[in-house]
Write a structure and sequence with these properties.
Blueprint: E1 27-38, E2 51-54, E3 60-64, E4 71-82
Antiparallel strand pairs: 1-4, 2-3
Protein name: Carbohydrate-binding protein CenC
């Protein structure tokens, strides 16, 4: 589990986990979130989870970005799939 407190809306923080996958493999991913006072637009901000892919040289290829959670929210699940 992870708890992250941030009172400064100008500060943006990510936490990363690397996965080894095969080309064409589908990854189902998600997170449980509980928020309090989270500001921003849910499409490009808020609390959330995303997945990005990079080639062997570390160059960004593409990603999947489910909508984030803003405001006050009890525990809720955010899920997506990526191929």
């Amino acid at each position: 589990s992870l708890r992250y407190d941030n009172a400064d809306i100008a500060r943006y923080r990510t936490f990363n986990q690397a996965l080894q996958v095969e080309p064409g493999q589908t990854i189902d991913f998600g997170v449980w979130l509980k928020t309090r006072g989270v500001r921003g637009q849910s499409r490009d901000g808020g609390a959330g989870v995303y997945l990005q892919s990079f080639d062997a040289q570390g160059r960004f290829l593409e990603g999947s970005y489910p909508a984030g959670v803003t405001g006050d929210s009890g525990w809720r699940q955010v899920n997506a799939s990526y191929t």
